Amino acid sequence: MNKLHFFSDYIADKYNGKLHRIGIDLSLGCPNRLNRFGPGCVFCAEDGNRARHLSRNLNLPGQVASGIEFVRTRYGAKPPYIAYFQAFTSTYAPVEKLRELYKEVLDAAPFALVIVGTRPDALPPETVEFLAELAERYEVWVELGVQSTHDSTLNLIRRGHDFATVEEAVRRLDSAGIAVGCHLIAGLPGEDRKMFIDSARKVAGLPFRAVKLHPLLTLKGTVISSQEFTPKPIGLNEYEYADYLDGFLRELPDHWLIMRLTAEAEKEKIITPRWWMSKGQFLDFFKARFNVGATGKEFSGVVTQDGSPTLYHPEFRQHFHSLAGAATEAEQKYVAPSRLRERLSYGKTVRLLDVGFGLGVNCAAALSCGGACEIVTLENDPRTLHAALSLYPQNSLQYRLIDALDREGVFREGNCRVRLLKGDARCSVTLLEMQSFDVIFQDGFSPDYNPELWSFDFVRALARLLKPDGVLVSFCSALPFRGALLRTGLAVGESPPCGRKRGGTVAGFDPAVLPLPLPPKELGIILHSTAGVAYRDPGLADNRDKLFLRRNAIVAKLRRRGVPKWYKP
Fold this sequence. Notes:
Mean pLDDT: 92
Number of strands: 21
Shape: elongated
Oligomer: single chain
Strand content: 15-25%
Largest sheet: 9 strands, mixed
Helix content: 25-40%
CATH architecture of the largest domain: Alpha-Beta Barrel
Number of domains: 2
Number of helices: 20
Distance between the termini: 60 Å
CATH superfamily of the largest domain: Aldolase class I
Low-confidence stretches: none
Strand order of the largest sheet: 15-16-14-13-17-18-20-19-21
CATH topology of the largest domain: TIM Barrel
């Protein structure tokens, strides 16, 4: 597929306007719940994806009336409509019962199209014959739950059928003249991008005419959300899912329609993934990405809530800055708590170490304060400088700064000078003079993804560079990081929250530099439980996996000695 063809556009063209779906729950349950595993598929919610307007106990005509009122009020919808039999398995009953139920629904309103959501193991010959009869009066589509083409995955998620059952079902439906779409899920436990794209190749060889895709949502109360279930799903974020999606769709025939690309659930029920993009934002982002043929390994630009830009880093699975505002975060987590303007106002040159130049937001914020400053900034990935240039106008301070550092490694303007040291920050800090910095901005990616820049050993190296009255500031409030700072001999406090529930971190040899001290309870947690155990990197050269393993080993040893997992005063 080289061009996106959406089902909604197909409907609008055929029926001279948009048709709205009226979700129906036939209360037929699911064979996988009733006959096999009890709870059913491991990802399935208790309500079986019932439409929102069906939260009340309504009979079928009542469901239709409620659905029509919902789409009329919300979207200004007018007849005819789409009868969408979505909840649970809409063919799981004897054919005589199905005839009765479907007639009751379809007689209740003017419907032009019928979509039937079902499983491949709930389509006996007589049911297929009934659907073929229905197709003589309505346009009928069957939305067939495939989820994966890998039998190992189908077994793991307790699907209750194999892929051969899918192949047989779609061929029988197609032979009966019924249009069939396949429903698959990206990010199922145990499946990577390669397996997902392999599923695309397999369904592409079958007589499907459309596809419905979405990332796996891990919902509260489902089997997959339990502590006992393994392997844990990875929870694809927007960018990762877009990469999976792009690869999948390009394996499909050009004439196939796209029924859906996203999933929805109540926010409070979603454990993973937590997206910052809305459904509409994601679709716009993906369409643009698909049209330019992006690889998924490039940085993606994002405008944060205060209007300043940031990038998404595919390796670390994080944005460079808080989406509440990149510029706001620089001011409130770095400039303000370090009292940089006050230090500059004394008329002396302030020396600042910027650990993690990234897009230059913190560095530019420091330069904007005025006064004389000398900044040494560290960056391991020069690609970020190239990517960042596209975010700013050419006459802006940010552009001038990034361009100069990228070309020459030095930026000079007024009485300010910035020098860029490329390479691993753990090596770069060994080249710097002891006790030579007034301020240190510590701004790596979070410890969960980049523990190398938050270890006790790296923090100790930074502390050696700090003047006696100097201050280290960071967005990070992770307990292992704060534990490393305390064990280095620094006083540790916090800055007010900005874009996150917790405030940032402020540290220095002199407690007077702290705007707010740490609460006694948090100090107790850090110092008297394994929650505050720091990462260790004695040679300042190990990779993240080694740091994770080493910390886990230290935690396990302390637990055996009786140190609690969490401190309770």
